[in-house]
């Protein structure tokens, strides 16, 4: 199976108040000798992000679904240990429920981004999850991009974990994705058909001067600039590790089946970018609680059907029989109990306190789920 890895971005919060706190630089000096440190036996890399209220954890490349899950849990522990040394906790919230004025990291690149993009950069306190899946060549990678594009909205819907923004319910399950799409290069891509077409679009974007560098090519899925991977960038950071495990497993299966179809010269669905953008909007609005657009027809269908269609689409390509059973099990639980946005809204409905939403999210980030008993069942169930 292809190797895969995950990057998760986390909010740094005051555990007493729930407010985001700008302590990333201090956290990155733990231990002080290495600001991008690797925990013994874990392999997780801790780095900063655009705002001082954020940390990012990257796993090493993994070969199995269980290894990814172990890395995700260990990485969250790594980041929380660094945060706790500075009076904070990490929480897997894709946006802050409480009002916040972020603090831009003092980095020349980030200063240039803020100078060019103004409030878009200043307000960009959002936390996503990126999945890297190994590809054999740029040609295979571009073929994969052409095939996966129609399935990306359902990955966003499954991950949706950002209903609140600046102290209010936005009406969206994933408002992070709407904030993120303020960037000029974000969103769905056209059908490329070749590496040259992909490269030409990137070159044309850079030639505008609006993007500082290739790192600002914020396509929903792209060829990685650093690794021999396709990078799927649409999900919110997931409140519970089990949801991140589910989405990472589906993403690897999606890349695998897409590479097979590309190799067989099967043409990808020719859904226009405008319809894909609409599909992403609907996924952000509804999460898994309503309709999504069908990947083949772009017509509304129940979100649960699109998710189960994706499961069937990747069947036989998502890992060992045990791994595929685990993915089916996790999806079944997700459809039954809901995701991060559902949990946040449920907590707020019960407590009427956004501070309680953050407190509950800290617990969920570190493994205290509302479905622990069921998640401990054997994968074959």
UniProtKB/TrEMBL annotation:
Organism for this UniProt entry: Arthrobacter psychrolactophilus
Family named by the database record: Belongs to the glutamate--cysteine ligase type 2 family. YbdK subfamily.
Entries under InterPro entries matching the protein: GCL_type2/YbdK_subfam, GCS2, Gln_synth/guanido_kin_cat_dom, YbdK
UniProt-listed Enzyme Commission number(s): 6.3.2.2
Reaction catalysis annotation: L-cysteine + L-glutamate + ATP = gamma-L-glutamyl-L-cysteine + ADP + phosphate + H(+)
The keyword Nucleotide-binding belongs to this UniProt entry's keyword annotation: yes
Molecular-function GO terms, alphabetical: ATP binding; glutamate-cysteine ligase activity
Keywords annotated in UniProt: ATP-binding, Ligase, Nucleotide-binding
Protein name: Putative glutamate--cysteine ligase 2
The protein's enzyme class: ligase
HAMAP family associated with the record: Glu_cys_ligase_2
GO terms, biological process: modified amino acid biosynthetic process
Signal peptide limits: none
Region (Disordered): 361-381
Protein function: ATP-dependent carboxylate-amine ligase which exhibits weak glutamate--cysteine ligase activity.
């Amino acid at each position: 199976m292809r190797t895969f890895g995950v990057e998760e971005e986390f909010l740094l919060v005051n555990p007493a108040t729930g407010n985001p706190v700008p302590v990333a630089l201090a956290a990155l000096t733990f231990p002080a000798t290495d600001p991008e440190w690797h925990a013994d036996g874990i392999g997780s890399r801790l780095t900063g992000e655009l705002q001082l209220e954020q940390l990012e954890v990257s796993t090493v490349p993994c070969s199995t679904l269980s290894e990814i899950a172990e890395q995700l849990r260990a990485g969250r522990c790594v980041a929380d240990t660094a945060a706790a040394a500075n009076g904070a906790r990490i929480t897997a919230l894709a946006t802050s429920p409480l009002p916040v004025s972020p603090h831009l990291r003092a980095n020349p690149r980030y200063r240039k981004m803020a100078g060019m993009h103004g409030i878009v950069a200043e307000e960009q306190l959002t936390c996503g999850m990126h999945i890297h899946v190994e590809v054999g060549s740029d040609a295979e990678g571009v073929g994969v991009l052409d095939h996966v594009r129609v399935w990306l909205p359902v990955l966003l819907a499954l991950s949706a974990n950002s209903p609140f923004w600046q102290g209010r319910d936005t009406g969206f399950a994933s408002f992070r994705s709407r904030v993120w799409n303020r960037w000029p290069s974000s969103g769905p891509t056209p059908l490329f058909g070749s590496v040259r077409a992909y490269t030409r679009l990137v070159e044309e974007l850079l030639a505008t001067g609006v993007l500082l560098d290739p790192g600002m090519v914020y396509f929903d899925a792209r060829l990685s600039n650093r690794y021999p991977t396709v990078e799927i960038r649409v999900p919110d950071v997931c409140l519970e590790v089990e949801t991140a495990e589910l989405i990472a497993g589906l993403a690897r299966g999606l890349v695998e089946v897409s590479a097979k179809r590309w190799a067989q010269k099967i043409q990808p669905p020719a859904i226009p970018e405008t319809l894909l953008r609409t599909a992403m909007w609907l996924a952000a609005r509804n999460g898994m609680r309503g309709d999504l657009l069908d990947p083949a027809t772009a017509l509304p269908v129940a979100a649960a059907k699109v998710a189960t269609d994706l499961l069937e689409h990747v069947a036989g390509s998502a890992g060992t029989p045990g791994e595929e059973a685990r993915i089916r099990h996790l999806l079944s639980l997700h459809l039954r109990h809901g995701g991060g946005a559902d949990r946040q809204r449920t907590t707020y409905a019960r407590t009427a306190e956004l501070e309680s939403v953050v407190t509950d999210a800290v617990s969920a980030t570190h493994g205290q789920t509302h479905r622990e008993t069921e998640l401990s069942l054997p994968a074959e169930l």
